[in-house]
Amino acid sequence: MKKLQRICLLALVFFYTGSVSAQEKEVTITIDTLSQQVYMLTGQGGNIGIYIGEKKVFMIDDQFDRLSDKIKTAIATLTDKPIAFLFNTHMHGDHSGGNARFNSEGTLLVAQHNVRNRIQTRQKAKLDAQEISLEDYAKMLPEVTFSEDITFYDGDETIMAFHVHNAHTDGDAMVYFAQNNVLHMGDTYFSERYPYIDLKSGGSIAGYIKAHKKALMVIDDATKIIPGHGRPSDKAALEAYVQMLEAIKAKVAAAIAAGKSLEEVKTDTELTSAYDADFGTGFISPERFRETLYNSLKK
Fold first, then answer.
1. Do the beta carbons of residue 60 and residue 188 sit within 8 Å?
2. CB 68, CB 95: distance < 8 Å
3. Which residues on neighbouring strands pair with residue 110, listed in sequence order?
4. What stretches of the chain show up as alpha helix (H) in DSSP?
5. Nearest-10 Cα torsion for 81, 232, 239, 199
6. DSSP secondary structure code for residue 193 in this structure
7. Measured distance CA(226)–CA(176) in Å, rounded
8. Do β-strands 30-33 and 38-42 pair in parallel, antiparallel, or remain unpaired?
9. What distance in Å separates the CA atoms of residue 87 and residue 59, rounded to the nearest whole number?
């Protein structure tokens, strides 16, 4: 009996590790050309932005550590210029997990200061648990931080990064390439799906909507948008997205005012039914989105 149990356990371990390996091998880095100088890379995790300047590359986010070699290979098909700046839109590991693999003497890591604080806290715990080396711990941390905004210049291009408060997290920043007319919104925008709002890390539905409205003040009808997740987007789609968020927020707020409990809001499909077909098939289900809005508004 014990021998049979051991065989079953080994088979389960083999199946699990084999599935994980297969999943990792299946990740393909695809490239969308958004302008003559700006590209979007999609793999597993947050969308990456690549700007190829006169002499150097400006990179936005880097997905997971294990995908770094694949991402570097994909970038090499576009240019052999060095990556001078790596910008983290926020602290989540699917956007900053590769920091240590891209950080070098020639690459400077940049982020809003709350991003560094949160990455530092998370990585310090890993360091204390001996899961990472001291070198990797240091290389994971943004080396330049800012409070509200920071601007980079490259030839005729002006690259403007600006902080949006308590949206997806408390450290979100968008990056706008003025001449190329491309905006990277990070996870303040989940194209064609309900968003993940990290309430525990300072996110809120009110801040999320404000972030979108700030983006709409910057862009025009011709702007290409790189969302944190999903396909490239534009101003019209973002406007429709804001209308969806505001409509559902109003319904959940009315339910709270009427004394509805969390469980009642979670199970009330009518609150999101008008939008579920278009936005409810992603990582965040309609029920989970209703729960997020309830908890955010109750704060």
1. no
2. no
3. 87, 144
4. 2-26, 68-76, 93-96, 99-102, 113-128, 134-140, 205-218, 235-257, 262-267, 273-279, 286-298
5. -80
6. S
7. 10
8. antiparallel
9. 6
What is the DSSP pairing of strand 182-190 with strand 157-163? Answer: unpaired
Write out pLDDT tens, residues 104-126: 999 999 999 999 999 999 999 99
Q: Which two tokens stand for residue 46?
A: 């947050």
Positive or negative: CA dihedral 180, 181, 183, 189: negative
CA 29, CA 54: separation in Å to the nearest integer?
24
pLDDT tens by residue, 32-82? 999 999 999 999 999 999 999 999 999 999 999 999 999 999 999 999 999
State the pairing for strand pair 157-163/38-42: unpaired
Length of the chain in residues, anyone?
A: 299
Secondary structure class of 80 (helix, strand, coil): coil
Bridge partners of residue 2, in order along the sequence:
none
Nearest to 182 by CA among 174, 193, 190: 174
**């390439």: which residue's tokens?**
177
**Distance from C-alpha of 173 to C-alpha of 151, rounded to nearest angstrom:** 12
Please tell me the pTM assigned to this model. Answer: 0.90
Bridge partner list, 83: 57
Which residue has 């990179």 as its token pair? 59
